[in-house]
Write a structure and sequence with these properties.
alpha+beta; Bactericidal permeability-increasing protein, domain 1; Bactericidal permeability-increasing protein, domain 2; five-stranded antiparallel beta sheet; 20 strands; 26% helix; binds 2-acetamido-2-deoxy-beta-D-glucopyranose; lipid binding; Lipid-bd_serum_glycop_N; BPI fold containing family B member 6
């Protein structure tokens, strides 16, 4: 869920060349939020406090101090940095209060602030082939120590306490906090592999191409997505050139790049749903869809149908839909036939007036909703129209351009947008 937010914020779908597949750049924004989630969900703080309150073998009693207790563990603040080629350097800053009774009978309090640091290697799990973070070299660094002990006994007492106790005990106490975060993040990698449904039409699976790589400002994840029809047929992604991220993005932000080839494969799942038969006579602002209106463009229609008859329009998309992208503009190309019929009385089938071979473009607008990529389209251009057959004799197709353009915009595009509402799943990662 988390990275989706980011995706929306960064308007990541800037169209550029990236074929085939999908690329994800995980920035610190995603990782920081993810770690925050991990902390909330894994109850690290509570665990640290519970662990701290227990007796530990290394926790030697200090001469003159009794009733030693750890309390008030501070909410850890986690900071991370990318280590190119390695993974992430993680630092957990936290603190706690250690209480006890001094030999003079007074209450003793030591407030320690500390950093726990570790290197999280980004590796490949040998069994599953999935990426995984593994922490190494967990260290505890004391940032500050404050106590209410009389100052004359402070250095000796405290140093002894720190040496004998904190340095030995704290790593065992605190380092699991680092691991708890990683367990949570690693689970996310595991859920990547699952095929995700596109309505009833098929599935999309984000298969990793290779182990993600770490750079100074992001982790790059390459996908070779698999698009499958419900029947199990895999739709091949066309291969066309390399990937290119837009240059202008906020530092630390995450980006997702989806190729035109990938979107084309996803839209192939919906091709059949783009075949539409429109029977309504009144559509939006359009003039009535009748032979009378049509006769205004092709006079021959009036000769064949002196009395007005409702029109029925059938659009069949007969080539897989294709997405093209240029900076700032993404288009959906549709090739198919548009057949217009004159309806007859109820018991008789409509009569075909003509069939036009058509090619038109829709402009695509992208948005992200929940964990899905949403598209809405509007008519860009009717590119070509040629007569394949006609029962009313030859006519100039050009005369119909305005009529058909309006029809596509008002009657057909809303149906397409309805079909597109199914949305395409985005990688379930972070
Ligand atoms: C402890 O961690 C904080 C936050 O990363 C950092 O600013 C500080 O310099 C660290 N202190 C020490 C002593 O390492």
């Amino acid at each position: 869920m988390l990275w989706i937010l980011c995706l929306a914020l960064c308007s990541l779908l800037t169209p550029t060349r990236a074929d085939p597949g999908a690329l994800l750049r995980l920035g610190m924004d995603v990782l920081n939020r993810e770690v925050q989630n991990a902390m909330d969900e894994s109850h690290i703080l509570e665990k640290m406090a519970a662990e701290a309150g227990q007796n530990h073998p290394g926790m030697k009693p200090i001469k003159g101090i009794t009733d030693l207790k750890v309390k008030d563990v501070l909410v850890p603040v986690i900071t991370m940095n990318f280590m190119p080629g390695v993974g992430i350097f993680q630092c957990v800053s936290t603190g706690m209060t250690i209480t006890g009774k001094s030999f003079m009978g007074g209450n003793m309090e030591i407030i320690v602030v500390l950093n726990i640091t570790a290197t999280n290697w980004l590796l490949q799990d040998e069994e599953t082939g999935l990426p995984m973070f593994k922490s190494e070299g967990c260290e505890v660094i004391l940032v500050s120590v404050k106590t209410n002990l009389p100052s004359n006994m402070l250095p000796k007492m405290v140093n002894k306490f720190l040496d004998s106790t904190l340095h030995k005990v704290l790593p065992g106490l605190m380092c699991p906090a680092i691991d708890a975060v990683l367990v949570y993040v690693n689970k996310k990698w595991a859920s990547l592999n699952a095929p995700m449904p596109v309505g009833q039409m098929g599935t999309v699976q984000y298969v990793l191409t290779s182990v993600p790589t770490t750079t100074p400002s992001y982790i790059q994840v390459d996908f070779s997505p698999v698009v499958q029809q419900q029947k199990g047929n895999t739709i091949q992604l066309a291969d066309a050139g390399g990937a290119e991220f837009p240059e202008d993005y906020a530092e630390g932000s995450s980006q997702l790049l989806l190729s035109a080839a990938f979107l084309t494969a996803e839209l192939a799942l919906l091709q059949k749903s783009f075949n539409v038969k429109v029977k309504d006579t009144m559509i939006g602002e359009l003039p009535p869809q009748t032979t009378v209106t049509l006769a205004g463009f092709i006079p021959k229609v009036a000769e064949a149908y002196p009395k007005p008859k409702p029109l029925v329009t059938q659009i069949r998309i007969n080539k897989p839909p294709k997405v093209t992208m240029k900076t700032g503009k993404s288009l959906l190309h549709l090739h198919g036939t548009l057949e217009m019929f004159a309806a007859r009385r109820r018991d008789k089938p409509p009569v075909s007036l003509f069939v036009l071979e058509t090619h038109f473009n829709l402009k695509i607008q992208y948005s992200v909703h929940e964990d899905r990529l949403q598209m809405t389209t509007s008519l860009d251009r009717l590119l070509s129209m040629s007569r394949k057959s006609s029962s009313i004799g030859p006519f100039k197709e050009k005369k119909l351009t305005g009529f058909i353009t309006d029809f596509l915009q008002e009657a057909y595009i809303p149906v397409i947008n309805d079909v597109l509402q199914v949305g395409f799943p985005l990688p379930d990662l972070l």
